[in-house]
Design goal:
With 111 residues, the protein is mostly helical. It has one domain: Protein Transport Mog1p, Chain A (3-Layer(aba) Sandwich). It is built from four helices and two strands, in the order E-H-H-H-E-H. The protein has a two-stranded antiparallel ribbon. The longest helix is centred in the middle third of the chain and has 13 residues. About 12% of the residues have low confidence.
Length: 111
């Protein structure tokens, strides 16, 4: 019915138990940070995460749940598509470092 959520081809070793709801909640809060800011602005002070956790807790009683993380290999990942390109971007924020000196390094290069 929902092919993106078909886990019939996965193995148990691709799931890991989280230590506690609180440890998972910290990770989830970090992922949802930007969406939370947008929600806060649009909903006059109501927080997305509090609203979400309250709705989930009413249905599944979060304190009574075991939380698992799923780390698939590419063959079993329902979201992986053949030919998809994964990009990883890393950046560093630096204060007070000038990049003018770097220009001299590249002056003689044909770019």
């Amino acid at each position: 019915m929902y092919p993106d959520y078909d886990f019939s081809a996965v193995n148990a070793h691709q799931f890991f138990t989280e230590e506690s709801w609180d440890s998972f909640k910290q990770i989830f809060d970090a992922y949802m940070f930007e969406a939370s800011k947008d929600w806060f602005e649009a909903n006059e002070g109501s927080t997305l995460l509090d609203t979400l956790y309250k709705a989930l807790d009413e249905v599944v009683k979060l304190a009574e749940c075991e939380v698992y993380s799923y780390f698939p290999d590419s063959d079993a990942d329902p979201f992986w598509e053949r030919g998809a390109i994964n990009l990883v971007a890393e950046g560093f924020l630096t204060d007070g470092i000038g990049y003018e000196e770097d220009g001299e390094i590249f002056d003689e290069m044909d770019m």
